[in-house]
Amino acid sequence: MISNDLLAELLRFRQNRNWEQFHKPKDLAISLSVEAAELLEIFQWKTDEEVAALIASESKQRIQDEVADVAIILSYLCHDLGIELNLAVRSKLEKNEVKYPVQKAYGNSQKYTEY
Hints:
This protein has 115 residues and is an all-alpha fold. 71% of the residues lie in helices and 0% in strands. The chain has helices at 4-16, 25-43, 48-56, 60-81, 85-99, 102-105.
């Protein structure tokens, strides 16, 4: 998760450019999807072997940059909505513990509604 110091830097970066006006929750949510799609595009149509080669090459920097874009947009969205990401993740993990008990979910890729 993004540290408080790094979040402060991100917020300063945004404020110095007067971008808050463009960062409404809807727009950040759209941007999050776009950035995630850009990350996904890197892997699209590649075999497992091609992905492994990509990760082992200098192209890994492109993956890292797209992951960073996702994290930055998510950080802005959480900040602006007053969501503490670590608490939200912990809460969701607790819900998933109930939905996906080990004895049913172990080695099973089905959604909880299917078992």
